[in-house]
Amino acid sequence: MPVDLQRVSSVDVQPGELPETMTAWVIRHEREGEPKDAMQIEQIEVPEPQAFEVVVRVMAAGVNFNNVWAALGRPVSVFRYHPDEDHHVGGSDASGIIWKVGPGVTRWKVGDEVVVHCNQASYEDVEVHGLDPLAAPSQRIWGYETSWGSFAQFCKVQAQQLLSKPEHLTWEEAASYGLTYFTAYRMLIDQADLQAGHRVLIWGAGGGLGVFATQLCALAGADAVGVVSSEEKGALVRRLGAVDHINRGEFAGMMRTGDETPDQEKQRVAVMRQFAKRVKQILGDAPDIVFEHVGRATFPTSVFVVKPFGKVVICGATSGFQLDFDVRYLWMRQKQIIGSHFANAWQCTKANDLVRDSKIRPVLWRTMGFQDVAEAHQLMYENRHSGKIAILVGATGGGQGRTAEGPGAIMAEVGA
Ligand code: NAP
After folding, report:
1. Which CATH number does the domain housing residue 241 bear?
2. What is the CATH number for 156?
3. Is residue 416 part of a domain?
4. How many Cα atoms are found within 13 Å in the side-chain-facing hemisphere of 285?
5. What is the mean pLDDT of the segment spanning 310-325?
6. 55 and 48 in contact (C-beta within 8 Å)?
7. Cα–Cα distance between 302 and 393 in angstroms, integer?
8. Which residue puts its alpha carbon closest to atom 20 of ligand 1?
């Protein structure tokens, strides 16, 4: 069916009713590859909300690295996660309006303005009721391990995923922060027990996770140094509250590829030691916490540089997920490696309250139109972005949706 992109921002039905079809960006198994090829616009059916589910009219969506992985089909195809659907509608961040509620939903009603957190788990799993929903066998990241994400006119979510939209934010600002900010919140506040006075090293401090890790450190009274790949990103992370930045270009030799000869490895370790010295100079001592998501290239440095008894907290591996490092630095200095994955609804709510109070602000690099979803992911794949990218879906232009005064997003004016 031909798709009229002019009409994506309008819907022909009243709240409470759903149309039969909607416009969506779709990945299919047979075309997995670079985002520019894998993601295509299609007209598909609109899902009905089942028990404790809600269908939200998407006003804006947020772009995350997870749908770069979804497009690539790496490290695993998302169709392994949801084999019952032959399409993947990605998108793990949204702001929007509740359009239809399923049976059993009482806390939310049609017309409420919301943002969506991206953790799903079955209500029937016992882990949800006392341990942590992230421990449940049914746990999935919505819009990555499930379909019906936010790169469409409507998305389908569990009612527990809903959070009140901060009133002072536009639709695009509100859609931009959830996944990366809530992940950074759990990593630092819950997993690494961030305290006032701590010293923190943040890799990719100008990226989606990093801009929030940097702000959280400043808010908590911890000193952070941010690693970045350009002076412009360095200026951004200092503006977000970092004590200083390090341009990783100066220490390119410390990045681990995994196939170094013994001589090359010796040289790599020498550069890594220089880097550790620089970190200490900036922070006054070695970091108590290293905020990791780069993986193979940086992990040996993270384990080396963190203070004795310090913590390396990791949630991703952009440069490769097979990690190797000199384990002597770990056991002799009694360091800890902590895995972390997104956040539970309680953590998302507490973190969202800090945004509602303007203590943490979204960092928006670019707002793009619905037609640009594949291009936005391609920019991210090529690391030509900074901060976050938002996509207008139901909103007809930027700046809409704000209903209260407030400082809004920090604009990150660097990148491509
Ligand atoms: P992002 O916006 O692309 O930011 C990552 C930053 O890492 C980039 O800005 C880049 O900064 C830096 N970087 C990239 N490659 C690097 C390399 N080879 N060496 C050193 N630095 C490098 O992505 P993000 O949203 O922050 O996500 C980062 C990773 O975490 C992704 O792999 C994502 O899938 C994962 N993640 C996991 C979770 C979870 O819940 N498990 C949640 C969010 C994200 P510079 O070029 O400026 O150094």
Report:
1. 3.40.50.720
2. 3.90.180.10
3. no
4. 11
5. 96
6. yes
7. 39
8. 294
Q: With respect to residue 347, please indicate whether it lies within any of the assigned structural domains.
A: no
The alpha helices in 210-261, defined as continuous H runs, are 210-220, 231-239
pLDDT tens figures, 248-280:
999 999 999 999 999 999 999 999 999 999 999
- Provide the 8-state DSSP code for 358: T
Instruction: Assess whether the C-beta atom of 383 lies below 6 angstroms from ligand 1.
Output: yes
Give the pTM: 0.97
Give distance in angstroms: CA of 138 to centre of ligand 1.
Answer: 26
Nearest to 94 by CA among 32, 18, 11, 153: 153
**Number of structural domains in the chain:** 2
Q: How confident is the model at residue 412 (pLDDT cuts 50, 70, 90)?
A: confident
Q: Domain span at residue 402?
A: 5-177+362-411
Minimal-distance CA residue to ligand 1 atom 6? 204
For the chain, the average pLDDT equals: 96
Q: Is residue 260 part of a domain?
A: yes
Cβ of 318 closer than 6 Å to ligand 1, yes or no, is yes
Amino acid letter for position 239: R
Closest atom of ligand 1 relative to the 69 alpha carbon: 34
Q: Please choose, from the candidates 302, 299, 270, the residue with its C-alpha nearest in 3D space to the C-alpha of residue 286.
A: 302
Q: Indicate the residue type of 374.
A: A
Residue 27 has pLDDT above 70, yes or no: yes
Q: Is 119 in the pocket of ligand 1 (CB under 6 A)?
A: no
- Determine if ligand 1 sits within 6 Å of the CB of residue 228: yes
Cis bond upstream, residue 262 (ω within 30): no
80 in a domain, yes or no?
yes
